[in-house]
Amino acid sequence: MHVIKRNSDIRNVFILSADALRHDAFEEVAPDLHKNINGVNFTNAVATANATAHSMPAMAAGVYADTSGYGIDKSEGLTTMAEKFSEAGYQCGFWTDNYLVSSEYDYDRGFSAGNLSKKSWKKKSQLIVNQVPSERFNRLAKWIYFHILNPVISLGSYNHYYSPAPDLNNDALDWLSLNKDTNKFCWIHYMDTHHPFEPPEEYLESREFSKKYSRSDLSSLSSDIIMSNGGSEFSDGELNDIQEAYLACCEYWSDQLLLFIKTLKDRGHFDPAKDVMVITSDHGEGFDPDLHNMIGHTPTPAFWEDMVRVPLVISHPNWKQDTINQQVSMIDLMPTILSTSGIDVPNTVEGYPAESPIDLVRKKVYFSAIGPDEYYFGIRSSEGWKLFSDRINTETGPEMESGRENDVRRIILTMHNEKKEKIMHVSDLDSISYPENNDLSKEWDELVDALETKMGGFTSKKGENKIDDELKQHLHDLGYVDDIPENK
Hints:
This protein is an alpha/beta fold.
């Protein structure tokens, strides 16, 4: 058995994750951040899925979505990273404004501090808007919210849909100042990079837009386009505008993160020689409706590069500053952080602990996401090939429920490099057609064999995946949903 070199003297552990932060956006706004924390920059890190509810189980518990389902229910026998740190004597705190990873889905397990994504009064007001039953009046109510209520709210002191990074950072700093001699595990999951995109005005000045926008206008536009699930009713100029707004949000988040790290250092909470810090994302964001058949990062499943390639920087006392360009998977993050901190890894994890940065490199990585009534899987090779199943529909709104007559279940083979992802072959999942080209056929067969061995195939009908009304509402509030059909 391979023995991991452990450091039982690890003092504090920080995970700083941004929702929907693409790898290329991170490289644009924070190319040298790893140097600031003496970290290892993994430039080819891959999430296990394209949306929070499906990718977060890997980060929190080291498992794929088909193992955990929605949330991390203790009855499933899973152990979270926070629970292991808590057992080891760490005080654990978690701050976020995404209640898909809140206590309602058991993400509070092991944490004794944090906001646990309590609803702000602003989101409560939109909750009322979203509960309007008629599609026609629902759209009218949303227009009123974004064009009348939201601008009025923005004149007040709290003018963000989600709690911004400074608020979460300040709350965490207050907690860190208590019992400074106690080891801490601090996780902050930021929403500044998630739609609706509403960066501070000063971050819009250097961006190129097709026309003048206010923050409220961009918030409304980005929400409308992403909720359209394809963007076909919007112009190319408007699609470009929300990408610019997204990058402005990423830049703002990066600046706030650097300020937070400086404060941690100044106050003695973070020292690269004593503490661990992880900077990453749960998934990316897509802005190519022609390739993806969608905008944003839902419906699920959709394992496109823009949505699964994420930033990953790890600062660890045992690791020297470096850059790793080979492929790594987020499934291995949780066991690696635990093991190299001197903490036993639960036997429920599906990833593997790594002793050194290069040990995280994988020839093949895997994806898992929850569809309407089955799980969807995919595989990505280190040579740039990817094979995955997906499910698209011709209606607006996310792919969640079975019984949609126009849904198409597909198998897609793609090839990607640093600049683009290209479809090499598409097959109907229910009537598989194979590549005629010999080279493509060889890649197809190799990936299929590996996928069947690891995940069991392209799909699996494990368990019951109907979405309850409460989860529907939470997805609604996050802007994923316009009109979800009823359970069949």
